[in-house]
Amino acid sequence: MVRTLLVRGLLLGLLAGLIAGAFAFAFGEPRVEGAIALEHATGAHHDHGEEALVSRPVQRAGLFLATGLYGLAVGGIFALVYAALRGRVGPRSDGGLALAAAGAAFAAVILVPFLKYPANPPAVGDPGTINGRTLLYVVMIAVGLAATAIAVVTARHVTAGPWARWGAAVTAFLVPVVAAWWLLPAIDEVPDGFPATLLWEFRLASLGTQAVFWTALGVLFGWASERAARRSAATS
Amino acid sequence: MSGLSTPSAIPLFRLRLWLLAVPVLLLVAYLVLMDNGAVSQMGAYLHELMHDGRHLLGVPCH
Q1: Interface test with A, best of B31, B55, B62 (most A CBs within 10 A)
Q2: Could you tell me if residue A70 is inside a domain?
Q3: Does any domain span residue A208?
């Protein structure tokens, strides 16, 4: 049972990662290229291209390797969390649980950190502060996950109907998240004169890539789980 | 046709062993998203290879 779910999560996660990679290739790569061109024009601080360890065409192909491996790993973890939640927390139907879990994960792990520390294209960000920035990003992910857990526990204690339950859950989620947004240090390393339109379009493409990934993972995993449930119901 | 069967919870003792996969999967995600060449040349190469994916998946990158 758990093995089936894990294999399903790994394979569909890989597929969702490749779908997200296709989206990123179509909508994100032009912005990455634009930022790198600017970086070269203004005196690069980071090597891309001929003298670099990996050439640009290989880096563009590496996009699919990155999103595919990311999808594989995240899909596996998603499946194990799903296995633990199933029949305990969340919607009773298999498909409903997959969609709800994917939606909650997108909010907690992607949206919460993104709104505080949005994605940056090449040429934005000081290489000297990468470790600090990565740590703060991981802290925001932890805050998002903790807030989701608090929201679920709160919702289970409210029995006064769906409006009260959802209201309590959303409030319980937002209080720690907004507190973290407010308390943690801001990062602004956008160089002077970096085009605002390019930055906005890159960030939109980045958020879109994650939205495509989590939508694909939730829908594919939910669909496969519903189908498996129907089959086992038909044979028993 | 959905919700034909109310899913029953998987007993925790059945889950425990599989949860060992989580650290392995987290390590893969870490290598893709956050390793900054700390693991010598290999890490640096992986970093550059998956450079565009990192940027577009939204994690901090150099």
Answers
A1: B55
A2: yes
A3: yes
How confident is the model over A89-145, as pLDDT tens digits?
988 899 999 999 999 999 999 999 999 999 999 989 888 888 899 999 999 999 999
What is the chain B residue with the closest CA to A132? Answer: B60
Task: Give the structural domain span for A86.
Answer: 2-124+190-235
ipTM of the complex: 0.90
What is the nearest CA distance from B4 to chain A, expressed in angstroms?
7
* Per-state percent for chain A, helix, strand, coil, to nearest 5: 80, 0, 20
Q: What is the DSSP string of A202-228?
A: HHHHHHHHHHHHHHHHHHHHHHHHHHH
Contacting residues for A233 by C-beta, under 8 A, at least 6 apart:
B4, B5
In a domain, B28, yes or no: yes
Cβ pair B55:A133 closer than 8 A: no
In a domain, A10, yes or no: yes
Beta-carbon separation of A65 and B50 below 8 A: yes
Residue (of A140, A17, A118, A102) closest to B29 by Cα position: A17
Kindly report the backbone phi and psi dihedral angles of residue A160, in degrees, each rounded to the nearest multiple of 5, phi listed first. -85, 20
**Rounded to a whole number, what is the distance in Å from the CA of A49 to chain B's nearest CA?**
11
- List CB contacts (< 8 A) between A117 and chain B: 60
